[in-house]
Amino acid sequence: MIALKAGDKAPDFKSTNQNGNTVNLSDFTGKKLVLFFYPKASTPGCTLEACNLSDNYSRFKAAGYAILGVSADSAKRQLNFKNKYGFPYDLLADEDKSVIEAYGVWGPKKFMGREYDGIHRTTFIIDENGVIESVITKVNTKEHTTQILE
């Protein structure tokens, strides 16, 4: 599971967004990045989290942050999720889990007594130089902006 911590160099990645366009970590050089991993597009908790970030997007922009969401959903599902809620940021369709695994957020989970492997809801705050400033593992989906900006 998550071995990355504040001060570590953020793992480079190359993935595709909801439109099938290539997105790299290097695209965000010179900007701070909120990289949030969520289990599944359009589920209640993921929708709350993504909408909270979207609703506060102007605050993030004013503070110099870009936002990027990541799940293992298909590009089509990510596009539907983005369009349905009007998210102003990209969502990565990390179907091969290369970004998810590079950031160590894939692992065993429990839900309603059932054990399975899945994405652990985690957010990485990455500085302008690609260094992790902080890792949020206990994400409050309704108040995630507050967790990040304050």
Quick overview:
27% of the residues lie in helices and 30% in strands. The protein is of the alpha/beta class and 150 residues long.
Describe this structure as you would to a colleague.
The protein has one domain (30-137): Glutaredoxin (3-Layer(aba) Sandwich). 27% of the residues lie in helices and 30% in strands. Helix 3 links the parallel strand 4 (65-71) and strand 5 (90-93). The chain has 5 helices and 9 strands. Strands 5-4-3-8-9 form a 5-stranded mixed beta sheet. Strands 1-2 form a two-stranded antiparallel sheet. A two-stranded antiparallel sheet has the order 6-7. It has 150 residues and is α/β, with parallel strands linked by helices.
The count of domains is 1
- Overall mean pLDDT: 95
Q: What share of residues is helical?
A: 25-40%
Q: Give me the count of strands.
A: 9
Structural class: alpha/beta
CATH architecture: 3-Layer(aba) Sandwich
Unreliable parts: none
Task: Name the assembly state.
Answer: single chain
CATH topology: Glutaredoxin
- The backbone outline, from C-alpha atoms, is globular
The main sheet orders its strands as: 5-4-3-8-9
The fourth-level CATH homologous superfamily is Glutaredoxin
Rg over CA atoms: 14 Å
N- and C-termini, Cα separation:
26 Å
Beta-strand share of residues: 25-35%
Please report the number of helical segments.
5
**Major sheet description:** 5 strands, mixed
Q: Can you tell me the CATH class?
A: Alpha Beta
